[in-house]
């Protein structure tokens, strides 16, 4: 099939490349001329494991090309996917300016028979509006479909080529069949192809991300509570996870979710709910808990240094919002860095791939270290924000010898408190029984529980 992907970012580049790898002729379009030029020269503008080789292979086979010119790409296409960003606007709603700009340009180049497929995450009702807007500008019948994307950065190729399911929203059997045909190579292992109406497909994407965000905020709140009452969230996770109705996935406490999807999608769904007269109480709580959780490491550090971080050197390991990506959108590390700088601390950072993106924001206000041990050199404490595998089994002797005192605040619970205590570290994680509380193995409080108070007691706000 002849496929066009408009928007060559994390989703568009991965999807376009995977579609070309399965035998289609794909043209990726972007307005960013520099990005397209780099791609033409074989340089991949994002970090995504395995993507570079796949792009090069498909460009060489002649099945994958890049352009800024709609006129060159769009006419005669079987499918045109829209994969531009839909960031959060000030009101919390999804900002669809990029999408409408694409739709208006597309209208000038579309030819009859092409199916326009929205892959960007868009609020319910958007695809109907895309149909109306294209129909107003084109004098032939328009076909619009929704195909929300569920890939995860860092595992994007695997997710795309071996999806748990493919969801499409359609208004005709023809669109459903063409999209199923396109996805068939990825559905060989009996993965379901779920065809539904446009609104259900649009909602599926938001509901999916909001369930996942809810799990994270829920376990984070429980971790804070565990910490305050002398329980250990890791033990509690085991205790609940074996219940098959609950399971273990996506129930890891940490420093809050970030990235380009969960924060904005939770807010966009809240906005849709409010517009439709439904008070989004659950989603509001999920968002608030998450924002508070992003401060958890700062409050621990602040408390540790007796409320004064002036001149303290803090090493921060991990800047990307999660491992295996260079994406720093809404990354918890940025919140921590801002708070540390505001409090007068000196920040030394290391991340395997995201340092250039962070350097573009902070310049020389923080130090960027090529090596994770260089970051702890002379630091008063180490804070771990992203669970890169490089941080899972570090040389603790080296860390200890380079820190001014052996203190680690671990926002991802990478190490066991026993191991850290034996290694001579003062170690604190999220919801873990550590330090004196672990030795005494008893609750720090035996008062009546008020969750707000407990969160305030553990995260300090
Ligand atoms: P991105 O910002 O990485 O990429 C968007 C691209 O669109 C950019 O390269 C930009 O230059 C280009 N663009 C903007 N306007 C354009 C125009 N008029 N014509 C052509 N190109 C244009 O965004 P992303 O992370 O790939 O996300 C895209 C969509 O997919 C969003 O709606 C997002 O919510 C959704 N999504 C993202 C992920 C993810 O992990 N990143 C996962 C699932 C769904």
List keywords for this structure.
single chain; binds nicotinamide-adenine-dinucleotide; 461 residues; six-stranded parallel β-sheet; alpha/beta; disordered C terminus
Secondary-structure blueprint of this entry?
Elements: E1 2-6, H1 10-21, E2 25-29, H2 33-40, H3 51-60, E3 64-67, H4 70-73, E4 79-82, H5 97-107, E5 115-118, H6 126-137, E6 143-146, H7 156-161, E7 166-169, H8 173-183, E8 193-196, H9 198-229, H10 233-241, H11 262-275, H12 281-293, H13 296-304, E9 313-317, H14 332-342, E10 346-350, H15 355-362, E11 367-368, H16 372-376, E12 381-384, H17 396-402, E13 407-410, H18 417-422, E14 426-428, H19 435-440, H20 451-459
Helix pairs in contact: 1-3, 5-6, 9-11, 9-12, 9-20, 11-12
Q: Give me the secondary-structure category.
A: alpha/beta
What would you call the shape? globular
Point out poorly predicted stretches: 444-461
- Order of the strands making up the biggest sheet: 3-2-1-4-5-6
Radius of gyration: 24 Å
Helix content class? 40-55%
Report mean pLDDT, rounded to a whole number.
94
- Tally of separate helices: 20
The fraction of residues assigned to DSSP E strands is 5-15%
Report the bound ligands by name, code or SMILES.
nicotinamide-adenine-dinucleotide
Count of extended strands? 14
Q: How many angstroms separate the termini?
A: 55 Å
Biggest sheet architecture: 6 strands, parallel
